[in-house]
Design goal:
Layout (H helix, E strand, L loop, with lengths): L11 E6 L5 E4 L2 E4 L8 E6 L3 E6 L2 E7 L16 H4 L6 H11 L1 H12 L8 H14 L1 H14 L5 H10 L1 H19 L15
Antiparallel strand pairs: 1-4, 2-3, 4-5, 5-6
Protein name: Transposase for insertion sequence element IS21-like C-terminal domain-containing protein
Organism: Sellimonas caecigallum
InterPro entries: IstA-like_C
């Protein structure tokens, strides 16, 4: 009999119940399985080079095994449609979007991206910021970012969301507009009528 085309690989079998994030953990890496199997108990076959997942003896997922990955390893087909869109995001697309909304929004986007060791960890916050823009409009989001940055150089998504929910961004803009109108009424040179009372310096 001829020898097998590929050498025999020792396999380690284990079982797991698929969690809501539809990931399994093998070593220092997490791998996706089809989201339809959330809550199901599966069998996992791990070799030096591959990961295979079985449900009722049918293979439902396979991955090339990695030694280490800071981010979960997803196969797009395993994801629900709304999660699949998340894979299309990247740092440049978020920065371009923030720049188009306004300078303060761009500062917040950069903060979300660069506060982590790995930029991808900030994608979720940036995507949530985009959802706030869809809900409240880009002008209100920019004003909310201005307001948040006036409190702290490191605003959180919760800070900005609270400002929008409470309408604090509108208050900030209204008071700022009123202040600008008051200043523009006098300008740099206030004129004789301003000093008629004699008690203004």
């Amino acid at each position: 009999m001829p020898l097998p085309a590929s050498p025999y690989e020792t396999a380690v079998w284990s079982t797991a119940t698929i969690q809501p994030d539809y990931l399994i953990k093998i070593g220092d890496c997490k791998y996706s399985v089809p989201y339809e199997f959330i809550g199901k108990k599966v069998d996992i076959r791990a070799t030096e080079n591959s990961i295979e997942v079985f449900y009722h003896n049918n293979r439902i997922a396979s991955h090339v095994r990695r030694l280490y990955s800071p981010e979960p390893i997803y196969v797009p087909e395993h994801m629900p449609e709304n999660h699949r869109k998340f894979l299309e995001y990247n740092t440049d697309s978020f920065l371009d979007w923030g720049m188009n909304v306004g300078p303060s929004t761009l500062i917040v986007v950069k903060h979300f991206l660069y506060m982590h060791k790995v930029e991808q960890q900030g994608y979720k916050s940036c995507a949530s910021l985009m959802k706030l823009a869809d809900r409240y409009g880009t002008e209100r989001l920019e004003n909310a970012c201005i307001k948040a940055l006036s409190y702290t150089p490191s605003p959180s998504l919760k800070n900005i969301s609270t400002i929008l929910k409470n309408g604090q961004d509108k208050v900030a803009v209204a008071s700022s507009s009123a202040s600008n109108k008051e200043s523009s009424k006098y300008g740099i040179t206030r004129g004789a009528s301003y000093y008629e009372g004699g008690d203004r310096l």
